[in-house]
Amino acid sequence: MLIYNANVVCLNDLIEQGAVYIQNGRVNRILSHQELDSFLLKKPDLYSVNAGGAWLIPGFVDVHVHGGNGYDFMDATEESLLGISKFHAQHGTTSMLATTVTSSKDNIEKVLKSVASFQEEIQPFAQVIGVHLEGPFISPNMPGAQNPNYIVPPNVNWMKEWTEIYPNIVKILTLAPEADHAIEVIEYSLSQGIVIACGHSDGTYEEILRATEAGLTHSVHMYNAMRGFHHREPGVAGNILVNEGLSTEIIADGEHVHPVSIQLLTKLKNKDNLLLITDAMSAAGLGDGTYNLGGLEVVMKDNVARLKEGGNLAGSSLTMIEGFKYMVNTVGLSVSEASKLASYNPAKLLGLEYEVGSIREGYQADLLLLTKDLEIEKVWKRGELIEF
C-alpha cells in the first residue's frame, strides 16, 4: 500500500507532499514528492491512498491509561481489554499499557494474568504491550484518587512473585521512592527490565535524588499527586524539573495542569523527556454520571472526573488525540513536536523506539491520518486499516 500526498511527520523531518510505501506491515520506503512518479512506474498496480494534503503521523503510545467507554483494566476480563483497546484505537492509540490502580494483591494479580492471556490472542485494535503498575506502593500522604485502604509499603517479595509468574508483563512500576524498602524494590525491578517511576510521592528533593541514583528514571502525571515546588525545598516537582535523568508525563486536558505550567515543562525538558498520556478512566467516552475507580465512587461532570468524597481529580476522560490537539492549539507546540511527545518519547521509555513511535523505514507501520484540523481520518496498525 502507498499513502501519498501527505505531510509525513518523521522524527527529525517533515516531508511535505510525501508518501509512505508499506509492505508486510512495515514502512518500506519514505518518498518525497519528486521521487513518487518514478516509484509508481515500477509499481503500476499498487493500492494507493490519496491523503489530500493531510498529516501522516505515527500512532500514539499511551503508557498510562486505566480504561475507557465503561471498561476498566481492573475488570481483568477479555471483554474489557478489547473494549478499552478499541475505544482508544478510535482516538489514535496503537500501543498502550494496561494501567492498574492501588488495589488488593489478588486484584492486581488478576490484571497481570488477564494481560498475559490477552497477549496470546490476536489483538485487532490497540496493542496492549504490558502492564503499568501504578501502586500499591505509594505514599498515604499523596493518594490522589487511589484507594488509601490498599496502600502498602514497597514489597520486593511481591515483585519477585509477579515477575516470576508473569515474566515481561510489568513494564512500568510507579511507587513513592521515599517509602521504606523502596530502594530495594527499585533495584530488583530494574534488574527485571522494569521502568521505575516516581508517583503519588511526598518525597523530598534529596530522597528523589537518591532514588534516581538507584535506578529511578521516570515520573507520572507531572504536578499531580506529588510534593510541589518550594523555593527552600524543591520537592518532587523541583527534582523532576531540573533532573535530566528523569522523564515525566503530562495530562493535557486543561483541568489537571495550567497551560503555562505545561509550557514551562516543555522548555525545561526540551521535549525529549516529556510524554503525553491520557490517565483515562472508564468514564472516558461517556457522559456525566457516577463511576467506579478502584472501589471509589467517581462523579463525572462536564467531562471532568472527581472523587465523590473529597473531590480529588480521578484520572481523566481524555483521549490521546484530544491531548495532542491541546498541546498544539493551546500550549503552542508544532505538530511534529506534539507527535514526539505522544509517540516517540513513550516508545523510547519502553525501549521500543526502534520498532514503533516514529515513521522510519523498517519500522512497524502504525500510522494515523489526520485532517488539517487534526481530526482522525484513518488508523493503521501494522499496515492494516483498523475497522471500527
Q: Helices and strands: which structural class?
A: alpha/beta
Shape: globular
Mean pLDDT: 96
Overall helicity: 25-40%
Our count of helices gives 10
Assign the CATH class of the largest domain: Alpha Beta
Largest sheet: 8 strands, mixed
The figure for the number of domains is 2
CATH architecture of the largest domain: Alpha-Beta Barrel
Residue windows where pLDDT falls under 50 for at least 5 positions:
none
**CATH H-level homologous superfamily name of the largest domain:** Metal-dependent hydrolases
Would you tell me which CATH topology of the largest domain applies? TIM Barrel
Number of strands: 21
Strand content: 25-35%
EC number: 3.5.1.25
Domain Amidohydrolase-related: 56-385
Protein name: N-acetylglucosamine-6-phosphate deacetylase
InterPro entries: Amidohydro-rel, GlcNAc_6-P_deAcase, Metal-dep_hydrolase_composite, Metal_Hydrolase
Account of the protein in words:
With 388 residues, the protein is of the alpha/beta class. It has 2 domains: 2-56 and 363-385, Roll (Urease, subunit C, domain 1); 60-349, Metal-dependent hydrolases (TIM Barrel, Alpha-Beta Barrel), CATH 3.20.20.140. The protein contains 10 helices and 21 strands. It has helices spanning 33-42, 78-90, 105-118, 156-165, 182-191, 205-214, 235-242, 259-268, 320-331, 335-349, and strands at 2-9, 14-23, 26-31, 48-50, 55-58, 60-65, 67-68, 71-72, 93-99, 127-134, 170-175, 195-198, 218-219, 247-251, 274-277, 289-293, 296-301, 304-307, 367-370, 376-381, 384-385. The strands form 4 sheets. Strands 1, 2, 3, 4, 5, 19, 20 and 21 form an 8-stranded mixed β-sheet that branches. It is globular, with a radius of gyration of 21 Å. Keywords: Carbohydrate metabolism, Hydrolase, Metal-binding. This is N-acetylglucosamine-6-phosphate deacetylase. Belongs to the metallo-dependent hydrolases superfamily. NagA family. It comes from Chengkuizengella axinellae. Its EC number is 3.5.1.25.
